[in-house]
Design goal:
Structural class of chain A: alpha/beta
Order of helices and strands of chain B: HEEEEEHEHEHEHHEHEHHHEHHHHEEHH
CATH topology of the largest domain in chain B: TIM Barrel
CATH class of the largest domain in chain B: Alpha Beta
Strand order of the largest sheet of chain B: 5-6-7-8-9-10
Strand content of chain A: 5-15%
Number of domains of chain A: 3
Strand order of the largest sheet of chain A: 4-5-6-7-8
Shape of chain B: globular
Number of strands of chain A: 8
Largest interface: A-B, 78 and 89 residues
Oligomer: heterodimer
CATH architecture of the largest domain in chain B: Alpha-Beta Barrel
Structural class of chain B: alpha/beta
Number of domains of chain B: 2
Number of helices of chain B: 16
Number of helices of chain A: 9
Distance between the termini of chain A: 38 Å
Chain lengths: ~325, ~425
C-alpha cells in the first residue's frame, strides 16, 4: 500500500527567511490585461512585465483565449527567455525550490485561473518577508497546495496505471488520458525504471508523448497520421506474438487475487475511478477460464451447506 | 511453456496466496544501476485494485500449494480438497520479468507451501530470487517468505536478494497455534524473525562503517495475524503487535480477518469475515505507530475489546474527557493529534499555519478537520464550539446518529449481521 507516513517528530519547523530579499515595487499603475503564448516561460515573462510596468494584472490569458469585455485590449507579452530565467531564479529569494516547483505544477494543472493563482502566490511570497508556504489560512496558498497535491496524485496514478504493450519491433507502448498534463512529471520515473527497453507513453488528450530510445527520453509529437495506430490502440498485427498471452495472464492473476467474500465495489472505485478503466487491460470484459477457489460455507447443524451470502441464524 | 497450463497454474497459485494481505512495496532502497531493469526506491505503487478494494502492487503467488502441514485455517492444508500446482523456477522468473516490463507490478511477493522440507522449499525460493537479481539484473521489489525451520544460511542469502522478509505468526497465541496448527510452534516462527532482526541491525551497523556493504532486507520485515479464527481478545492481539514492533523491530503487522474456508470443528462457524474488527485493529495500529499512543492507553483488562461502533481515538477521548477541550491555537502538536476528527495532516497544518496568526473554526473546516467529531473536544481562542457540556453517552449518540452523521455503510451492514446472528 502506498501511503505517506507521518511521525510526531516531523512537525514543520520555522524556515529561516532567505538573507537577501529585494524590495518589491508597489504595483501603482492602472491594472492591465495580459496575453501570452501559453508556455510557462511566457507566463514568467508576464510576471517580469508586471513588475517592470508596475501594473497588476486584471487577467492573464493565452493569446486567442482572451475573454472579457468587447473593449479589452490585452497587452501582448512576447516570451523572453532571459527575462523568464531571471524570474525563475529570482523566485528562490522568496521561496524554497519545493514551493517553486509547486508553482510549476499549478501551471500544468490547466485550471482556467492558474496564471492569476501563480501571480498572487508569487506576489504574496515577495511581500511577506518570510516563507509563506505553510500559511494555510491564506486561500491562495491553500489553493496552490491543493493543486500541487492533485497533480502529484495524478502523476502517481499514471505511474501506476500505464499498461505497456510490446510490439513486434520490441517497443513497449502505452496510451494514457490523464486529467492533467503530467507527462513532464513522470518522465524521470519511467526513464529510471525501464532503462533497458524502448518505450513510448502517449497522451491521447494532449497529442504528444514521451519516447525513450535506450539513451534518453524525449518529448515526441506525431503530425497527422504518422503514427495513427500507436496513438490510439496498437493494432493486433503489430503486437509481439506473446503479447496476448501476457495480457491474458495478467487478467487471470487479477481475477484470482480477489477475495469474493470481501467484495467492496465502492472502495474499488474510489481507488480506481471509472474514467481510468479504458486503458487498464484487467478491467476489460472477458471470460473467466478457471473457477476461483470455492471456500467451504459453514454447515448449519442438521441442515445442508448454505450458499454464499446467507446468514446463519442460531 | 504451455499457455493454458501456465494460466491455470497462475490462477491456482494466486488464489492460494491471496490470503496473505501484505501488499507493501515501499521502503526499498534498490536503485537501477548500469541500465538494468527496474528500481525499488521509497514510495510504493499500487498498480491496480481488486474488487474487494485491496491494492495490487506485487505479483503475489505461491511457488506451490502442495504442503506437508495441516493448519486448520489454511486453504492449502494437506487435508483440503483443492487443485494443486507448482511453478518451475523459470516460470516464476519469466512471469515476474514480463509483468514488470509491462508496468503491471512493482515486483514479486513469493511464498510457498512446504513440500518435502523447510530447507528444500526455502532453497527453491532463494534460487528464484537469486536468478532474478543476478542473471536478469532485476531491481524491482522482492518480498519473500522466510520458511520457519529453514537453515540460517538460506535465510541469510534470501535477505541479500529480497527487499523484505517476513514470517507469518498467523495465530495470535501459542495456545491457538497448538490447537489449529499442531505441526507449528512459536519458537520455530520467532527464531527466523529474530535472525532477520539481527541481520538488519548488523547490516545497518556495517553500512555506517564501510562504503560498500551488500544489502540485507532493506525494507524490513513484517508479519500477519489472523483475526477471528481463534479466541484471543483485541487486548492480546494489540499487546502482541506492540511487542513485535518493539522487540523485533517489525515494519508492519498485518491483520487478516478470518475468512471461513472450512467446516473444521476447531474453527468458529461464521458467515462473514470480521471486517469491522479488522479495521479497528488497523486504526489502533496506526495510533500506536503515528499518533504517539501506547497500547495500554487504548485497551486494558477491563476493556479488552475495541468498540466496533466508534474508532479507537474517539473511544479514548470519550474515556479521557479530563484532558479536553484542547485549544488549537496554543496546544502542542501531540495533543492536537489526539483530538477526534483531526488527522495527522490537519494537525500539521494547524501547527504550521497558526504561526502566521490565530486560527478560526472556519480555518479548521478548510484544513479538513471533521468538525462533527472534533467540536466536542476543542476550543478556539478560548471559545468552545459546543456550548453545552454533554456527557460521554450523549456525545457518542450525537456523533453516531446526530444530524449529518455518515455511518460507514460497512459498519451498518456488519452490525446488522450481528443483530441477525444473535
Amino acid at each position: 500500500m502506498a501511503i505517506s507516513r507521518f511521525s510526531a517528530s516531523s512537525v514543520p519547523v520555522v524556515a529561516a527567511a532567505p538573507a537577501a530579499r529585494r524590495v518589491v515595487p508597489a504595483l501603482s499603475n492602472v491594472p492591465l490585461d495580459y496575453a501570452y503564448d501559453g508556455t510557462f516561460e511566457g507566463l514568467l515573462t508576464v510576471l517580469f512585465t508586471v513588475y517592470d510596468r508596475k501594473a497588476a494584472p486584471n487577467s492573464i490569458q493565452p493569446t486567442g483565449a482572451v475573454q472579457g469585455g468587447l473593449f479589452v485590449q490585452p497587452v501582448e507579452v512576447e516570451t523572453n527567455e532571459a527575462a523568464a530565467a531571471r524570474v525563475w531564479k529570482g523566485l528562490l529569494q522568496y521561496m524554497d525550490a519545493e514551493a517553486r516547483t509547486r508553482l510549476f505544477h499549478t501551471f500544468l494543472s490547466e485550471q482556467p485561473d492558474r496564471e492569476l493563482v501563480i501571480f498572487r502566490y508569487a506576489d504574496l511570497a515577495m511581500r511577506a518577508g518570510r516563507d509563506i508556504s505553510e500559511h494555510y489560512a491564506d486561500d491562495n496558498v491553500r489553493r496552490v497546495q491543493r493543486l500541487a497535491q492533485q497533480m502529484y496524485r495524478e502523476k502517481h496514478r499514471m505511474e501506476a496505471f500505464v499498461r505497456f504493450e510490446k510490439t513486434q519491433d520490441g517497443l513497449f507502448h502505452a496510451t494514457i488520458e490523464p486529467d492533467f498534463d503530467v507527462l513532464p512529471l513522470i518522465a524521470a520515473h519511467f526513464t529510471k525504471r525501464y532503462a533497458d527497453q524502448r518505450w513510448l507513453i502517449y497522451d491521447r488528450r494532449r497529442h504528444y508523448g514521451l519516447y525513450y530510445d535506450l539513451h534518453r527520453t524525449d518529448i515526441v509529437q506525431f503530425d497527422g497520421g504518422a503514427m495513427p495506430q500507436r496513438s490510439t490502440a496498437v493494432s493486433a498485427t503489430v503486437l509481439d506474438e506473446r503479447e496476448p498471452l501476457y495480457k491474458l495472464l495478467w487478467q487471470a492473476y487479477f481475477d484470482h487475487v480477489n477475495i469474493p467474500e470481501r467484495k467492496n465495489m465502492k472502495l474499488h472505485r474510489r481507488h480506481m475511478p471509472l474514467r481510468y478503466w479504458k486503458y487498464l487491460s484487467e478491467k476489460q470484459p472477458r471470460e473467466q477460464r478457471f473457477e476461483p477457489i470455492r471456500n467451504k460455507r459453514p454447515v448449519q447443524p442438521g441442515g445442508p451447506a448454505l450458499g454464499a451470502g446467507a446468514a446463519v441464524t442460531e | 511453456m504451455n499457455d493454458q497450463r501456465i494460466q491455470e497454474k497462475l490462477s491456482i497459485l494466486a488464489d492460494a496466496a491471496k490470503y496473505d494481505v501484505s501488499c507493501s512495496s515501499s521502503g526499498g532502497k534498490r536503485k537501477n544501476e548500469d541500465k538494468g531493469l527496474g528500481n525499488a526506491e521509497g514510495m510504493g505503487i499500487c498498480h491496480s485494485y481488486t474488487e474487494d478494494g485491496r491494492c495490487v502492487s506485487l505479483l503475489k503467488i505461491l511457488l506451490t500449494n502442495h504442503c506437508i502441514f495441516d493448519c486448520a485455517y489454511c486453504v492449502s492444508r494437506r487435508s483440503n480438497d483443492v487443485k494443486r500446482a507448482a511453478f518451475t523456477v523459470d516460470e516464476v522468473v519469466e512471469l515476474t520479468m514480463n509483468f514488470y516490463r509491462r508496468n503491471y507490478i512493482e515486483g514479486l511477493f513469493l511464498s510457498s507451501g512446504i513440500f518435502s522440507s523447510p530447507d528444500y522449499t526455502m532453497e527453491r525460493l532463494v534460487r528464484i530470487i537469486r536468478k532474478l537479481r543476478t542473471e536478469h539484473r532485476f531491481n524491482g521489489y522482492i518480498h519473500v517468505k522466510a520458511i520457519p525451520g529453514a537453515s540460517e544460511e538460506l535465510i541469510q542469502e534470501a535477505g541479500l536478494y529480497a527487499d523484505r522478509l517476513s514470517v507469518n505468526i498467523e495465530l495470535p497465541s501459542e495456545m491457538a497455534l497448538t490447537t489449529l496448527a499442531p505441526e507449528k510452534n512459536y519458537e520455530e516462527i520467532l527464531t527466523p524473525m529474530a535472525q532477520i532482526r539481527d541481520g538488519i541491525i548488523q547490516n545497518k551497523e556495517e553500512k555506517a562503517l564501510f562504503k560498500k556493504v551488500p544489502p540485507f532486507a532493506t525494507a524490513g520485515q513484517s508479519t500477519q495475524l489472523i483475526v477471528g479464527a481463534s479466541q484471543e481478545n483485541d487486548l492480546q492481539i494489540i499487546n502482541l503487535s506492540d511487542s513485535l514492533y518493539k522487540g523485533y523491530g517489525l515494519k508492519r503487522v498485518y491483520y487478516s480477518g478470518y475468512i471461513p474456508i472450512t467446516d473444521d470443528a476447531r474453527l468458529p462457524q461464521v458467515t462473514h469475515p470480521p471486517l469491522i474488527r479488522e479495521h479497528r485493529l488497523y486504526q489502533t495500529d496506526w495510533l500506536m505507530r503515528f499518533y504517539g499512543f501506547q497500547a495500554d492507553e487504548i485497551l486494558d483488562p477491563a476493556h479488552p475489546f475495541l468498540d466496533l461502533e466508534i474508532d479507537p481515538k474517539l473511544a479514548w477521548a470519550l474515556r479521557n474527557r479530563q484532558v479536553f477541550p484542547v485549544d488549537i491555537n496554543t496546544a502542542d502538536y501531540e495533543m492536537i493529534l489526539r483530538i477526534p476528527g483531526v488527522g495527522a495532516r490537519s494537525a500539521k497544518r494547524i501547527v504550521a499555519a497558526r504561526r502566521f496568526g490565530p486560527l478560526s473554526l472556519d480555518h479548521l473546516h478548510k484544513f479538513g478537520v471533521v468538525l462533527k467529531r472534533a467540536k466536542f473536544f476543542l476550543t478556539c481562542r478560548g471559545q468552545a464550539l459546543e456550548k453545552r457540556d454533554y456527557d460521554e453517552q450523549t456525545i457518542r449518540r450525537q456523533i453516531l446518529f446526530g444530524s449529518g452523521s455518515v455511518r460507514s455503510a460497512l459498519v451498518t451492514q456488519q452490525l446488522d449481521l450481528f443483530a441477525q446472528a444473535s
